[in-house]
Amino acid sequence: MNQTNTRAYNFNPGPSALPLEVLEKAQRELINFRGTGMSIMEMSHRSSTFEEIHNGAIARLKKLFSIPDDYEVLFLQGGASLQFSMIPMNFLKAGQKAGYIMTGSWSEKAFKEAKLFGEPYQIASTKENKYRNIPALQDIQYDLDAAYVHLTSNNTIYGTGWHDFPDTGNIPLIADMSSDIMSKPIDVSKFSMIYAGAQKNLGPSGVTVVIIRKDFLETAITEIPTMLKYSTFVENNSLYNTPPTFGIYMLGEVLNWIEDKGGLSEITKLNEEKAKVIYDVIDRSNGFYTGHATPESRSLMNITFRIAEELEKQFLVEAKEAGFVGLNGHRSVGGCRASTYNAVPFEACQALSDFMVEFQNKHQ
Ligand SMILES: *Cc1c(COP(=O)(O)O)cnc(C)c1O
Hints:
Its cofactor is pyridoxal 5'-phosphate. It contains ten helices and 14 strands. The protein is of the alpha/beta class. The strands form four sheets. It has a seven-stranded mixed beta sheet with strand order 2-10-9-8-5-3-4, sandwiched between helices.
């Protein structure tokens, strides 16, 4: 059987689709990795074979994401969620302020953790508007004595994303890019730190990528547990303890795949085309489908929409029967959501677009 035909139209929000080419390569290399007589999972993280994979992944990430030389790239564990605590633990002293821009559930979770360490405050929030939009840059005021400003670049649950980032001057800017990292080129130098769980755009779950500027690292608090200190991982090239070796290998292969596709500029073009075929159906549906995000704040990665009550259930049932997976909205908000991460092929998005048109024609 043609393996391509056995693959679902996978719109899962995370963990999510991986490139078929990467899965096939991993399968080929699983039992006997490049003549070593063992799989990646069975070898020492101190072996030269693993070290090459590890350093290769870091180098490729730096190159593809145009990360300047004064940044460190780390592979941590604990997911993006542990970063919600590690950031204030490392950078927010008792009594010190930190500004949080609230654009959804993940921002809320990050904010909650910071309260345990210092005095975070909300510099802007679109909660009153049901997180349908990103605040306008000119409406955000920065406190000059804030230890940092934190934002969520793409709101996985509400389906909104930042298209321009704020200029916070001398205040360090930190971004949770879990659901849109490497979906498009960005100016990394605007940020003191970027972090992302790998399981949406970069690989399997279990690895968290942290990109952090060296001068910002120097301001970190030192009297904290070893495993929760960024400097531990910097000093040991993320090999202080056993890292998630298989996940790092997969991440490296996903980066290879991005490179083979022509890098981020090509990936962006593809992502824009993928999102467009679905947003176009919403926009041309005369209100049959209603997008949750305001058009100027739309995410390229998570397309959220609703259909009138009883038809929504029907849509999800029929979509499932037609081979579409993961279209249910997040359990906290309901509705429908199509996550169109890097590895989701255009054909899957086109098929969904066609299905949506047919569904409307049939039920309107
Ligand atoms: C998925 C997600 C998280 C949580 O990631 P974990 O790795 O499960 O902790 C955090 N932030 C954003 C924006 C996400 O999409």
